[in-house]
Amino acid sequence: MAVDPATLKAAAQAAVKVLIDEEPRKKVLAVAIAPVCAIILLLILFFYILTMPLQWLGSFFSSDQYDATWEVRVEHGYD
User: Fold this and answer.
1) In terms of pLDDT, which residue wins out, 58 or 15?
2) Which residues of 25-38 are buried (b: 16+ CB within 10 A; e: fewer)?
3) Considering Cα of 58, then 64, then 67, then 72, what sign does the dihedral take?
4) Model-level pTM greater than 0.90?
5) Under 8 Å CB-to-CB from 12, ≥6 apart: which residues?
6) Could you tell me where the DSSP H helices lie in the chain?
């Protein structure tokens, strides 16, 4: 696949312009960093649920159900 030299030159000029101008640089960084942060937050939530499943589920129960959940947690060594 060959790239036309004129296209390559235009792409290089656009890249230099983005790197020099502050406003486009901020937009490019925001677009690049936002998905990475979202993925990291999803991974953190996933591993939190894996390591503390009963404590996390306990927040969805009433006080009586929470006490039962706490007892199961202690009985099975999750404390």
Assistant:
1) 15
2) eeeeeeeeeeeeee
3) negative
4) no
5) none
6) 5-20, 22-51, 53-58, 63-75
- Report which of 5, 31, 7 is spatially closest to residue 18, judged by C-alpha positions: 31
In the three-class reduction of DSSP (H, G, I as helix; E, B as strand; rest coil), residue 41 is classed as: helix
Taking only the tens place, the pLDDT of each residue in 32-75 is 899 999 999 999 988 887 877 666 666 676 767 777 777 887 88
Task: Look at residues 39, 37, 42, 71 and name the one whose alpha carbon lies nearest to residue 54.
Answer: 71
Tokens 């959940």 correspond to what residue? 69
So what's the pLDDT on residue 54? 66
